[in-house]
Fold this sequence. Notes:
This protein is α+β, with helices and mostly antiparallel strands and 691 residues long.
Amino acid sequence: MPTRMRLRSPRQPLFLFLGATLVLATGLGWLGWRLLQQDRDLEDQRIREHLESAAQLLAAELRQGLADIDTRLSRLAVLPQKQLVAATSEEASLLGDDTLLAVFVENGIRAFPAHRLAYQPGLRDAPRTGAPELAAGEAYEFRSKEYGKAIEAFRELSRSTDEQVRAGALLGLARNLRKSGRLEEALEVYEELSAIPDAIVGGLPAELAARHARCSVLEELGRSEELAEEAASLHADLCRGRWRLSRGAYLYHLEEARRWLTDAPASPTTGDEAQSADDRDDEDSRPRPSSYLGNQQGQEESLAFSVAVELLWNDWLRDRRNGDEFGGRRNVWHDDRPILLRWRGSGERVVVQALGVRFVEEELLATLQPVLARQRVRLALADLDGRTVLSQYGSEEVGGPVQAANDGRLPWVLSVVSADPTADLGELAARRRLLFASLGLVALVVMVSSYFASRAVGRELEIARMQSDFVAAVSHDFRTPLTSLRQYSELLASGRVADDERRHKYYGFLVQESQRLQRLVEGLLDFGRMEAGAKEFNLEPLPARPWLEEVTAEFQREVEENGYQVDVAWRGPDVTLPADRMAMSQALWNLMDNAVRYSPDSKTVWVEVKREARRLLIHVRDRGLGIEPDERRKIFEKFVRGSAARRRSTQGTGLGLTMVRHTVEAHGGTVRVESEPGEGSTFTISLPVEE
Ligand code: ADP
């Protein structure tokens, strides 16, 4: 592409600038993004390190707490048998709620507190054989089915002073009353039986057997409200571990009590009870008697203790023959309830410590509270298989939990998360906002400065283009008269023009062309002076009408050979102008010259002069190309040429109107244009007149 063409497209550098800006902005954006990522990674690393050290600290504290409990266990394990029971019981009361101490010896388990075991692991059901005194009554009952006689026999024995015989008799009496359909009486007898302490009937504590039977009779009688009360209190006592029962007996009676409760009608409950009702596995959502609901948790806890102790008891029974040391620790689960077991002993006897999750939470973790608060973390404990023992946070915690390294001295895996992740990330967010703001600002500055720079470059290129057009136009303007001058002078010098008239005519051409050349040179010199601010105007009183007629006449002579004519209309009286005759003539000439050059199809130029107040208005009108609205102001600037002029390749320098404006303004006047593209233009010079 030729250089000239390239210079003609000022949009290209603009695109270049915008492209460069885009690249710069993209680069900045990328840098910012990388910076943010690095910052985030660093922040993550910092938070992680903090969590790791907090986890280690908490693990050490927890180990210390457990070590204290361990020491107590070891102390118990070496005590002589005689002191052991008393010491263990005392220790159990010190350890508090949700813990259990147990001593395994060959003939069974002693638990402290005893009621924390729902049932007695390792207990075999007592023999069902009754007292021999009862044989007569049983014979009537079972062999001959003579219930009346059986009732008589048992009633007799129920007055016995031997508690065991009395209990057996009362049981038989009540049973036979039931069989005879005398249920109300049977109820009373069971009531009596339940009041005999420590008696065993049918392998069960008499009280339990009697209360269970009462429920069953109440059910038969359809007395549901009483049944509910009775069953609830039975259930509560079972949960409290009131009786030493085997697993089978315990679960059977518990199940029965539950069944009666489930079948029982609704009874009013408190808000708390309604809430714990939600936790039950039971699909039946009817409110239950308070004692039943209140015991749910306790019952689950004591069941879990029993299951855990039973598991260890069975292990011990299996291994004790080896005579080895028997010690260790383990987490045992019953449903969702973990029990931490720790034991020390031998084949002879073992001391067992069982810690419930409530103890871990309320006793052990309470001591960690200051560290948790200081480090602003929350923790969770899981057993070594990864099953959660307790957790202070949800699984969806931000950043995920950080684990403390486990050296085997802790029975759990300890993990922590930040207690306030938003505060941890707050600093990062603030830094990020600042970075975004600065990046945005830099991008804005880059874009704005690129825009202005590209505009300036575009303008420079436009001026360069105009100057290059100007040089071409001036060269052309010079060449035309010079060529004519040369041709006519050569003709005359060769002596080949013999005819005087023709010679005279040629001399006339020579004068005309040299005047044209002079006007051109004068014009350029004037422009140079005006630009340099060195042009001086010699203002003298100038009678306007003769001056104007002379200039228009001279112009008429110049253009008539091309078929143009100037139509002058002077309205009103003559006036005198304070004016530089030469400069003002040149200005008027320029306007008329433009009117001719830009009117290819209309051959008349109208010059109309009139006075308006203290000003003389000179209108130069044509019916030529006209000027686009957005160009009407710009054409008075140097080198600027209209688009219509350039399209038609009309020669011109773009200096004429600049000089007109300069001259008119130097005379205290103004010049303006009205135009319609395709219709023509009217340039008006307004000059102050001399009074
Ligand atoms: P030049 O005529 O040498 O280009 P001027 O300064 O005299 O320079 O005029 C500037 C531009 O104004 C012209 O190029 C033309 O586009 C426009 N112009 C001036 N006079 C007229 C006119 N009478 N009719 C239409 N266009 C005009």
